[in-house]
Each structure stands twice: as C-alpha cells, then as structure tokens.
Amino acid sequence: MKNPTLKDIISTATARLSKAGVDSPALSAQLLAEKVFGLDRLGLIMEMGRAVDIEAAARFEVLVQRRAAGEPVAYILGIKGFYGLDFKVGPGVLIPRPETEEMVEKVQDSFDRNAEFFFADFGTGSGILAVTVAVLFPSARGIALDLSPEAMTLARENAVQHGVADRVQFVRADFNKPVLAMESMDLIMANPPYLSEAELQEVSFEVSQFEPVSALVGGAVGDEDIRASVPLIAGALKKGGTVFMEIGYLQGRAARDIFESCAEFSGSVDVLADLSGHDRIVVAKKK
User: Fold this and answer.
1) What are the domain boundaries of the chain?
2) So what's the pLDDT on residue 1?
3) DSSP designation for 23
4) Are 130 and 267 in contact (CB under 8 A)?
5) Cα–Cα distance between 91 and 279 in angstroms, integer?
6) If residue 198 lies in a helix (H) or strand (E), which one and from where to where?
7) Are strands 237-246 and 168-172 parallel, antiparallel or unpaired?
8) Given the DSSP bridges, would you call strands 141-146 and 118-122 parallel, antiparallel or unpaired?
9) Cα-flanking dihedrals φ and ψ of residue 273, to 5°?
10) Are 198 and 192 in contact (CB under 8 A)?
11) How does pLDDT run across 8-64, given as a tens digit for each residue?
C-alpha cells in the first residue's frame, strides 16, 4: 500500500475538522501541514502530490487531534501574525485580533514616523501593540503593563525578536492602579478585558475554553476595567496626549460616557468604528 499524498491527508484533516465544528477547517489543516512539513503556502500547493512518510503523517495527526478538540491554531503553532510581524503566543495570552491592528493605524495617523514620544501599553499581552509601535517609530520609547507572568515572558521574547527590547520596558503590574508617573506619556494604548460575564457564555468555545478568562472578562457588566483605568490614564498623559482604547462593540455609548465624565477628557472624546462598522476604539485627547 502506497503512502498517502499531502493532498490526501490535508483533505482528510479538513473533513475531520469540519465535522468537529471548528473555525476555518480547511485553513487550519493547511496551516498545520505547513508547520509539520516545513512549507510555506506556495510550497504547500506545489507539493500536494508528494507522498507523505508515516512518521510525518503521525506528527500531523497529533496536531489535527488538538485542533479538532478546539485548541486554536495560533496556540498549536505558537505564533500569530499581527500588522505584518510574527509574534510568539501561548495559552497565557490572548490571540491577536485583526481589529486591534486598527489601533496601530490610528497611532500612525497621529505621529510622524521619526517623532520622539513616550507611550504606555495597558494590558500588553504578547506585546503586540508595544512592540509594533516601537518597530514603526524608531525614536519612540514605551512601557508595557500586564499582570500575567506568562504575558510578560512572551512579550519580552517578542521585543527581543523584533529588536526593540532596549526601547520597551515590560512591567508586571495592574494598570488599574497608579503605576506611571504623572503627566509622563504622550500616548497610551489600552486593550482592557471588556466582555461581561454573560457575554463570555456567548463567544465561541475556542475562545472561552482556551484563551485566558482574565484577559477577556472585565467583570459582571464588562466595563469595570474601563471605569477604573480612565482616571489613571488621564493622570499619566501629558497635556495634549492621546489615549486609544479598544472596547467591545456594544460599549460605545457607555465608554464615551465614562471618558466624558473625566474632566481632563470632556469634550474631546470620539468612538471609532472598525472595518465591520462596529464601535471599537475610543480616542480621547487630554486637555
């Protein structure tokens, strides 16, 4: 009996993952195959007819089993792309979302590439915002905060990987408590937990069962971390400084009211929609 081809095992895996009900079964199978067989997307297409040896097929099967159980592909691969950069990820941090890339675009609209400025990243996770901004702005320096020790480890590794470890300081801290010096930051980016406890029950199994709940849920209502952090953000920003905060798509009005209730931001608050038309980013400038 001849060995199956790459096309055979990918087709079988796709059918299995589809039956298991996971997201993007065909793409999942292809990404796992690329990892096991050391191929990029073009190489995978070119090699579809090649016979697969038993040992490699067995390694592929192990990964497919994990994916069929709902484990996100990013955790299985240990890597996720964000704004054209690859970041190490793991179960201790959220998987980067495309929506968060839009915050980077807003930062690029606000600062010249060669500008010297200080920034802070509240809830840095794997460091995607802090590292990406440091890469894009070679004269910028920043502080990235997170309570998770797993997040701190991964974020530091990502900073080293992308050559910005000398310009980003990673601090394990609760960003809802005073950490930053008063009026020290030109920019603050924040991606607080913003799901309510009820909303957690509505997200996909792959998110609720595998990604860290502490990074997802902001309390019974969901806006608790927003309320707690806004006064601290106002205190840490320089006059004229800007904050960008990612929020849940149902939180636009509540988040705006929270920021408007802060005297330093009142009258300079806007809520921006993402590419899907949902409220996603609060932008506020300190008077």
Assistant:
1) 6-70, 90-285
2) 59
3) S
4) no
5) 27
6) helix 197-200
7) unpaired
8) parallel
9) -90, 150
10) no
11) 999 999 999 999 999 999 999 999 999 999 998 999 989 899 898 889 999 999 999
Three-class secondary structure of residue 271 per DSSP: strand
Task: Say which CATH class 90-285 falls into.
Answer: alpha beta
Residue-wise pLDDT tens digits, 200-211: 777 787 887 888
Residue 59 in tokens: 């390694």
pTM: 0.91
- Token pair belonging to 172: 């394990």
The sign of the torsion formed by the CA atoms of 25, 30, 207, 218 equals negative
Residue 80 corresponds to which tokens in the numbers above? 């996720």
Question: Which of 42-46, 189-193, 219-223 is predicted least confidently?
Answer: 219-223
Q: Token match 């675009």: residue?
A: 105
What length does the chain have?
287
Report the pLDDT averaged over residues 135-163: 96
Task: Assess contact for 146 and 190: CB atoms under 8 A.
Answer: no
What six digits make up the tokens of 198? 């009820």
Tokens of 125: 């996770």
Nearest to 206 by CA among 100, 127, 91: 91
Closest CA to 128 of 206, 191, 73, 207: 191
CA–CA distance, 157 with 87 (Å, rounded to integer): 9
For 208, residues 6+ apart whose C-beta sits below 8 A from its C-beta are 200, 201, 216
List for the chain the helix, strand, coil content (%; round to 5): 45, 20, 40
Provide φ and ψ at 194, rounded to 5°.
Answer: -135, 5
Mean pLDDT of the chain, nearest integer: 92
The answer to whether 123 touches 175, Cβ cutoff 8 Å, is yes
Whether the Cβ atoms of residue 272 and residue 253 lie closer than 8 Å to each other: no
The dihedral through the CA atoms of 79, 81, 82, 85 has a sign that is: positive
